[in-house]
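fyi for ur records
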Amino acid sequence: MRGFLIGSALCAVLAVMAFAGQSKAPTPDKLPAGWRNWTHITTGVIYSEKHPLFGAFGGVHHIYANAPAAEVYRKNGARYPDGSQIVFVLYEAKDVDGMYVAGKKKVTALMVKDSRRYRQSGGWGWQAWDASGKAIVNDPVGQCMGCHRASPNRDLVISKWTP
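which gave:
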């Protein structure tokens, strides 16, 4: 299930909310228009306590990428160009007659590649919004990079393309 776990970036977000207010690097301020029409990269479900991220990220995961990011995903590339954007959406997993479907939205997150603007955070800007639309990332280095550092050979991108 590692292919869809961009959500592990949010693992750090939720785990270190106590450090809110200590902005160390800039964050994106809003979701890009039309992101829902971007390329769907992958979907996965964390459905039980067997998964280490179940507590924070149990649910249905959908990953979307804009055109520059989608091209790198398709090639299983290691470097994303500036302008790449990736959206992760986490929903509650709802069992409907034996089929897991997306329930209520829990979190929407964004990664934006801009090597100059986000140099303090590995060239990526991170932000996440809870279900009410409240931004929850104040320190992308402390809240996001911990999980993303596990993917150094993929330019800090955890999810993988599912053709």
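The chain has five helices and five strands. thats all i got for now
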